[in-house]
Structure formats: C-alpha cells, structure tokens
Specification:
- By secondary structure, the chain is mainly beta.
- It has one domain.
- It is 11% helix and 47% strand.
- The chain contains one helix and nine strands.
- The strands form two sheets. The chain has a seven-stranded antiparallel beta sheet, with no helix packed on it. A two-stranded antiparallel ribbon has the order 4-5.
Length: 167
Amino acid sequence: MKQLLFAAVLFISVGVFAQNPPASPPAKVSGTNDKGATITINYSQPSVKGRTIGKDLEPMEGKVWRTGANKATVFEVNKDVKVEGKDLPAGKYGLFTLVNGDEWTIIFNKTWDQWGAFGYKEADDALRVKVKGGKTKTFSEKMTFAVEKNGKVSLMWGDKQADFTVK
C-alpha cells in the first residue's frame, strides 16, 4: 500500500512539474573563438516580466550578482585564454557581475558550483575585468548570452548589454 501511495505521489509530482516549466529555465551557449578556444556558458534565464532591472531585478548597483538565476552561472574554457587582455587559465568558473553605473565588472570565480551568490567570496576570484555597459539593439525579455567567432561574449537582458572579449 505504501509503495502504491509513493508511486501515485511521484506520478502527480512529475506531471505538475512537466506542465509548469521553471520561471528561469536553464540555458547553454557554446562557441569556439578564432583562436580555437571553446567557450561554454551554462546559466538560468530570468525574465523581466514588466519589472525594472536595477530596481526590482538584479543586477543591483554595487552588489555582486550571479549573472543569471538559480545556481551560479558557469563559464568554461577548454584552453588558457585572455579575457579583455588578461590571463584566464582553462577551466570552469562561476561568472559574477558587479555593476556601477555604466561600468560593469565581470568576475570569474574559482568556486563555480554554488547556489546564487550566497557562497561568493572575493578571495576566490580568478580574474576581474571592467567593461562598459550599453543598450541592446532590441529588448531581451529573457537574459541571454551570445558567443561570437571573434571571441566577443555578450550578455543581454532587458535594454542592457555588456560585452567582453575572450582570445
């Protein structure tokens, strides 16, 4: 009887989750730059849903953000690379962001397997680079990354965009 009850609860639970996709679904983008390095980004895509980024949604001014939703976004390269001209060894990194006005700090943290930014420690940063934030050409309801052949990585969300180069 207990086994039948467990099976029924499991069946109902699976059915409910199958009908209700997560609010911030998982996404993955991968590309190989012109130097032969493969760049892979695993993240969860939050949606704007009529809210204001920086007020109702992260990134919040001056606060470290996991650059996505749910688990920390994972940035992986299969070769040693230069990000904005600075060395980053091959490996997996938690990708975090710090926004101060138009200046975005892109953070590659050695602790890549963590929930959100709750376990983030600056002492574990492998690299920080500063880039200028800008406006997207078209509004992006879901946070999205793009990786181009020339090594340009773009983060687009709402009307905001930040780009950095990986060579």
